[in-house]
Amino acid sequence: MRKVENEILDLIEMRWSPRAFSDEKVALEEIYALIEAASLAPSCFNEQPWRFIVFYDDDQVEKLKGFLSDKNKLWNKSVRTYILILTKKHFDHDRKDNKWAEFDSGTAWGFLSLEAERRGLITHAMAGFARNAVIQHLDIHEDFTPIALIAVGKYGDVNLLDEIFKSSEKSSERLPYKKLIIEKKFTD
Ligand SMILES: Cc1cc2nc3c(=O)[nH]c(=O)nc-3n(C[C@H](O)[C@H](O)[C@H](O)COP(=O)(O)O)c2cc1C
Q1: Ligand 1: does its nearest atom lie under 6 Å from the Cβ of 76?
Q2: Residue 120, domain CATH
């Protein structure tokens, strides 16, 4: 668990992104619960631009692994479930570009990851996959962009991890939060 200076929600302190997944399959109902948690995120105009593709059947999961970056392939061998988060690029009400769609879908991912933490599940977001090839092979409509692929599962055996990942298999450091606050003042 990370050390924080202020009292904040335990789940936020506890969440991190492990790579040592067990090959135990999470019940589909739990995956749906994570998606429901994500769907409660706030969004600009309540557009709810997030969409989710669940990869749960073993053959589909294995096919998806073929699109991962080589480095991600190394630690994804035991992953049994993925959620691909997409975002809808336009507002429905006026068809204009939704410049906040990715921001909102990121919030949804945050909610999803915290609900997973509460359920004793682990999540690991990935940008390292062949996004254009996935769009093409899944025939994803042009209104949607895949944002991140989320591995979901249970914690496994760190000894089975490829050597290169072992030292980083822990919650990572953060910049001191006070350094993130930019001081600005209006001059007149
Ligand atoms: C959008 C996004 C993309 C990421 N892509 C990858 C990835 O392709 N491979 C990987 O091993 N980790 C990936 N990560 C995990 C980050 O490296 C990790 O979240 C970060 O180091 C902070 O660590 P923590 O999640 O354990 O707090 C990604 C995370 C996010 C949010």
Answers
A1: no
A2: 3.40.109.10
